[in-house]
Specification:
Elements lengths: L2 H10 L4 E6 L1 E14 L6 E14 H10 L3 E9 L2 H12 L7 E4 L6 E7 L2 E8 L7 H17 L4 E5 L8 H13 L4 E4 L13 E2 L3 H8 L8 H15 L3 E5 L5 E5 L2 E5 L12 H14 L4 H16 L9 H11 L1
Parallel strand pairs: 1-4, 1-8, 2-6, 4-5, 8-9, 9-10, 10-11
Antiparallel strand pairs: 2-3, 6-7, 11-12, 12-13
Helix pairs in contact: 1-10, 2-8, 4-5, 8-9, 9-10
């Protein structure tokens, strides 16, 4: 790919509209210091000096899509609670639409609170409901999704699954079927519960652990041929066009039909791997919407994932920095 085409492609990101279906959440942080041990139990006393709430889970994919210049439409069910109100405020603050969000009084808005003292992560407290949506709410969400997809010119659909219940086999089947009829590419960032339910999607993006657990196989991470064989099993079993597997320090593997390509990881100073998978699928969705060749999807996604790992915390990709890195490679 020449540099002119690359620059033009990044400009075309601005014209795309991506739907993200999945488990959204709030990432809450409490920072402070811990100078003494509690007299009540052998645990540190955290003196909190600062608090922050950020968009997390599938919402981080939305932030990455937005950072790349495209319009991101987050679709999820949240609770009719205080955290749900905070979540909507965070969407507004980050200039993300809430038109894909459904509110239900019987669900809790997921929030994960991390207590960090003296740069040490002491504790995480999760407040959530992980049960699948009720049949009534599931049908309501499906109709909501269908109407949104039919009323908008959607360029790609991402299923961002965190096993919190927002995605069910019935939702997958209905939305993938509609997307295929409208020639909208579908991408999946899977988790364990629904791993084998994503039939007929365009791109399936597990990490190495997820593919071995999902297929119940034991393969050598350093053996690309064995990874290719596993990817082909997925393709045949679930009628998937493209399988993209993140291999952390070994880069990104992509398989399309009988051909495959491995984009090796670049040498970087890794600060934090949190959120790298969200960045990878965000970049992949826009590349797929622009009908990039598989090797370019892997290479661009690999560079993007590496860049966010250089930063502390869950941070969306910087579009200009990504473009500069890609221009240096191509």
């Amino acid at each position: 790919m020449n540099k002119e085409k690359l620059i033009n492609s990044f400009e075309q990101f601005n014209n795309k509209k991506i739907v993200i279906i999945g488990d959204v959440m709030i990432d809450a942080y409490m920072w402070g210091r811990a100078d003494r041990i509690s007299p009540e139990a052998p645990v540190p006393i955290a003196l909190i000096t600062n608090r922050e709430k950020r968009l997390g889970g599938a919402a981080n994919v939305g932030l990455n899509v937005r950072a790349l210049g495209a319009e991101a439409i987050l679709c999820a069910v949240i609770g009719d609670d205080e955290n749900g109100k905070v979540f909507k405020q965070l969407l507004k603050k980050r200039k993300l639409t809430s038109k894909g969000i459904l509110v239900d009084k019987n669900r809790d808005t997921t929030i994960k609170t991390r207590i960090i003292c003296d740069n040490q992560h002491l504790l995480r407290v999760d407040e959530e409901i992980c049960e699948p949506l009720t049949s009534e709410l599931e049908n309501k969400f499906i109709e909501h999704l269908k109407n949104l997809i039919l009323d908008n010119q959607i360029d790609a659909i991402i299923f961002e699954d965190y096993d919190k219940g927002n995605i069910t086999p019935k939702i997958i089947e209905n939305i993938v079927s509609l997307a295929n009829k409208k020639n909208i590419p579908t991408l999946v960032d899977p988790k364990k519960r629904n791993f084998n339910s994503y039939n007929n999607v365009s791109l399936f993006k597990p990490n190495f652990k997820e593919i071995t657990e999902g297929l119940k196989i034991d393969i050598d991470k350093n053996n690309i041929q064995s990874i290719h064989n596993a990817a082909q099993i997925l393709q045949t079993k679930m009628n998937i066009n493209t399988v993209l597997i993140t291999l952390s320090e070994l880069g990104i593997f992509i398989c399309e039909n009988d051909s495959y390509f491995n984009a090796p990881a670049q040498v970087r100073t890794i600060a934090d791997v949190s959120g790298a998978g969200d960045t990878v699928i965000s970049v992949a969705s826009l590349c797929l919407a622009l009908k990039f060749e598989a090797k370019y999807i892997a290479q661009f996604s690999n560079i993007a994932g590496g860049l966010v790992c250089e930063k502390i915390g869950v941070v969306p990709i910087d579009k200009q920095q990504l473009l500069n890195e890609c221009l240096n490679v191509f």
